[in-house]
Specification:
The protein is of the alpha/beta class. The chain is built from 18 helices and 18 strands. The chain folds into two domains: 191 residues, Rossmann fold (3-Layer(aba) Sandwich); 211 residues, FAD/NAD(P)-binding domain (3-Layer(bba) Sandwich). The chain binds NADP nicotinamide-adenine-dinucleotide phosphate. NADP nicotinamide-adenine-dinucleotide phosphate binds next to helix 7.
């Protein structure tokens, strides 16, 4: 392909001299950036969405829980963007390994980093690294069939486990641990992982929040899902939802907190149904030590309270839970991209309205950020749409300068030749997609079952 011709996934040609943009990451933020870039009429733009995986959709594919089919349906609207003229998917290419920022400068006027926040935050307590003390992010990757996850990483051989954190990821993890294999049958969880879940010995799940019911970050629809499980009782002691004086004002102020409190109150009042599993929700406890010699055998927790400024402090009252596994679900963090400025404190790429800033706070021409790597791991999928659109507005405002600064651009194919990348395109993704649909049908499980390794995915491409 000549550098002056750009072809969309559907083969349609775009203008010979478009503004050429590489988006790194094909999750919602990256695809929404491509959407905003190709939906406007100020500039003709050609976008390559580059991902290290041969599959698009980022956290929609490898983060959204497999039983949240409605949220997973977002992929359908993201697909429409990938199939738009002027947009290409370039899979199998890892930024920093196969291509550097300098390489991309040879082919693009601008680069948008939309790599998300893929690692876990740490509890920073003794015993955290014992086997059996795990990051929720790793468990999520595992049950979502991320190709980096090994089947053997999780055994689920303990009757009692603890999940630390009061956010929606913790609810996902608890739900997947609590559901029966039959309830998960019609999801896309890879078969070997479903077999492990089917053999799970987990009976009692402690869900631990370090602050109170009004401060929990759970959202109401996700809480309601938990309350509706057939296979597990949610157990909440009535005294747990007493409102402490330092939180009382919040009850009046925040609608979301009031809605959550209503749900917690229902839970505290309803009788247990004697389900096979129980989810015991505890507020006002924080983990202080993971116990065990060779593997996790318990979790020591300390009761907490809020001080007058709303900060969490320990009361000194400790107790031990017999948890054989501890899942820390206390938020996601971004990882540095080679050669790109990074703020270790916020774990994001420093930026002003999406323009990447260098160490002195100056704008790095041609570099932009969108999504979680820009603002941190907050908000729902849709939040990334307005976030990416704001970044794209900055980029388009800079277009004249970006064109002027770039010399003659080379086709990215030339830049990638010899990089060692197993480059894939949108057609390859459709082949993987079809193979997953076939697998789902052959196992009698549903719309799709994921291929779970690099070998299986590249195998489906005959490579
Ligand atoms: P989150 O919403 O930020 O929740 C993190 C939780 O961890 C908070 O309750 C926080 O408590 C707690 N925490 C932090 N440090 C802790 C520590 N050292 N010890 C104990 N607890 C600690 O993060 P998330 O659950 O990872 O979710 C990330 C984003 O994805 C959120 O915006 C979430 O809504 C979204 N999401 C949505 C869905 C969905 O189904 N809609 C599913 C998954 C994720 P404090 O508040 O006290 O800091």
């Amino acid at each position: 392909m000549s550098p002056r011709t750009v072809m969309g996934q559907n083969g349609a040609m775009t203008s010979p001299d478009p503004l050429r943009v590489a988006v790194i990451g094909s999750g919602p933020a990256g695809i929404y950036a491509a959407d905003a870039l190709t939906r406007q009429s100020r500039e003709e733009v050609a976008v390559d969405i580059i991902d290290r995986l041969p599959t698009p959709y980022g956290l929609v594919r490898y983060g959204v829980a497999p039983d949240h089919l409605k949220i997973k349906g977002v992929a359908r609207s993201l697909r429409e963007v990938l199939e738009r003229p002027g947009v290409r998917f370039v899979g199998g290419v890892e930024f920093g390994r196969h291509v550097t920022r300098a390489d991309l400068a040879r082919s693009y006027h601008a680069v948008v980093y939309a790599t998300g926040a893929s690692v876990d935050r740490r509890m920073r307590i003794p015993g955290e690294d014992l086997p059996g003390s795990v990051a929720a992010t790793d468990f999520v990757n595992w049950y979502c069939g991320h190709p980096d996850a090994e089947v053997e990483s999780f055994l689920l051989d303990s009757e009692e486990v603890a999940v630390v954190g009061a956010g929606n990821v913790a609810l996902d993890v608890v739900r997947i641990l609590a559901k029966s294999a039959d309830e998960l049958l019609r999801t896309d969880i890879p078969q070997p992982m479903l077999d492990v879940l089917a053999a799970s010995k987990v009976r009692r799940i402690h869900l631990l929040a370090r602050r109170g019911p009004l401060q929990a970050k759970f959202t109401a629809p996700e809480l309601r899902d938990l309350g509706r499980l057939d296979n597990a009782d949610v157990v909440l002691r009535p005294e747990q939802i007493d409102i402490d004086p330092n939180s009382a004002a919040m009850r009046e102020a925040e609608r979301a907190a009031r809605t959550n409190l209503k749900i917690f109150t229902e839970w505290a009042q309803r009788p247990a149904r004697q389900c096979p599993r129980s989810i015991e929700l505890r507020f006002w406890v924080r983990p202080v030590e993971v116990l065990g010699d060779e593997r996790t055998t318990g979790l020591r927790v300390e009761e907490t309270e809020l001080d007058a400024e709303g900060r969490v402090r320990g009361t000194g009252a400790v107790e031990t839970l017999d948890a054989g596994m501890v899942f820390r679900s206390i938020g996601y963090a971004g990882t540095p991209l080679p050669g790109v400025p990074f703020d270790e404190a916020t774990r994001t790429v420093p930026n002003s309205e999406g323009r990447v800033l260098d160490a002195d706070g100056g704008v790095l021409r041609g570099d932009y950020a969108a999504g979680w790597i820009k603002r941190g791991a907050t908000g729902v999928i849709g939040t990334n749409k307005s976030d990416a659109a704001a970044t794209v507005r900055s980029l388009l405002d800079d277009a004249a300068e970006l064109r002027e600064a770039a010399g003659g651009l080379e086709p990215v194919e030339d830049v990638l030749a010899g990089s060692g990348a197993g480059v894939t395109d949108y057609g390859d993704w459709l082949s993987i997609d079809a193979a997953e649909a076939e697998l789902g049908a052959s196992l009698g499980r549903g719309e799709r079952v994921k291929l779970r390794s690099w070998e299986e995915m590249y195998g489906a491409l005959g490579r």
